[in-house]
């Protein structure tokens, strides 16, 4: 009877746990599939970093061994201190040397940068000066061309005025000559009666 009750309880317990086990199994599968998809190798990988170079282990760590004699222990401790001081001094020298190298490199870079800036400024000034000279030459050429044009127009106007004046003088001279020729045939008042009488008598056309 007790065995039957135990089997019945275990069967009920399995029936109640079966949906939970299914849900847990589905969650594990989903997690595994998402992890595998996320951990898929990318199409382009970056190169692996170079291996890190570790420093050598310190010789002082674990180097002390207790001595039976206090004097020997003190002497050993004194030697360790001196060795440590020597190593610290050596490290300081190396550090100072590295700092000097870095300072020299920084100074070289700063000088190169200043030189590049100076050359750029000189090139910019040279280009600006060349542009100014070109503009000044163009302005001078334009002014000279304008001056020559004005001189040419002035000379043409002066020549035209001279021709007009010469033509006017020629016309005036021709008019005077014509008037002189006509005036040579004129009869003065003193000889007017005499010429009329002669014309009547001689019937000569005047």
TrEMBL record:
Mind telling me which InterPro entries this protein's record contains?
Answer: Ribosomal_mS26
UniProt entry keywords in alphabetical sequence: Coiled coil
Q: Where is the composition biased (Low complexity)?
A: 34-43
Q: Which domain of life is it from?
A: Eukaryota
Q: Which GO terms describe its cellular component?
A: mitochondrial small ribosomal subunit
Know the name of this protein?
Answer: Uncharacterized protein
| Ranges of biased composition (kind: Basic and acidic residues) | 161-179
Pfam assignment, any one: MRP-S26
Parts forming coiled coils: 74-122
Q: Where is this region: Disordered?
A: 34-57, 161-180
Asked if the keyword Cytoplasm belongs to this entry, the reply reads no
